[in-house]
Amino acid sequence: MTFIRTLFLHILVVAVACVCISLLINNYAQFSQYFNYRIKAHIGANHLFSETELQRYNGQFNEELYLVILGHVYDVSKGAKHYGPGEAYHMFVGHDASRAFITGEFEQYNDSLSDVSVLTDDELQQLFTWKEFYDKTYPYLGKIRGRYFDDGGRETAYLQDIRARATKSVQATRDGPKYPSCNVEWKAQHGTRVWCTNRSGTGRDRQWVGRPRKVLPDAGSDEKRAVQFCACLPEDVTDALYVTFPNCDEHTYSCMIPDQ
Ligand code: HEM
What we know:
Mean pLDDT: 84
Number of helices: 8
Strand content: 15-25%
Bound molecules: protoporphyrin IX containing FE
Largest sheet: 4 strands, mixed
Structural class: alpha+beta
Low-confidence stretches: none
Number of strands: 10
Helix content: 25-40%
Order of helices and strands: HHEHEEHHHEHEEEHEEE
Strand order of the largest sheet: 1-4-3-2
């Protein structure tokens, strides 16, 4: 009697398992769609992604494809023919490879590709034009923590400087800034650094190096200064609209800028 009951239970378990497996196989598309919907609902708009979280959205682990430009995340799943695995622009999904939009380094991703500080002001302007393309074409999902946004989702000094340089390029054809811009870099361990050299801002040699100064946004009617973030002032020049950065010695060539 016990044997018959055990046999019956085994047959029942196997039958239920077979039904479940066949349901899963036949309705895989719906299950996967539902699962992706749940992930999206969880993420919502204006989510603050970590790098590790974003890596899941490169088309290998689920069908969602998330592209990053200048720290902003877009859902480019509807452009799978460009961004899906094996496609021409697959390198742009799952991480921030902003620089490659200008340099065309699509072959192999490396984490330096989120650094755009080596680009000229004109190239930065082109990069913002790419961002406008994504704003118009694909759903915006949020930001990624790191170079462009801090842990609270606020813009870093690095992003402010990049935007200021891009805006400057639009105006540069009309009139150049009063003083050359600083060099800028961002590193995960230290944050944003600005510094002056005798080529910074212009790419051409000059006689003097200058000291990094924060350009005050309240620059009155002078548009040229209003769009600049950091300028290199000659050491003997004092100008009320150009101030030393907090915790930075006024005579030093290089300053660390804490993220707000
Ligand atoms: C730095 C260089 C380049 C970058 C960053 C770039 C980037 C891109 C991106 C991101 C897309 C997809 C746009 C979307 O989501 O709809 C795209 C599409 C396209 N690209 Fe490029 N591209 C570059 C160079 C080129 C070159 C040199 C060619 C031609 C020889 C080219 C031909 C195309 C074509 C034909 C499409 C549209 C394909 C289609 O709609 O089926 N691209 N490009």
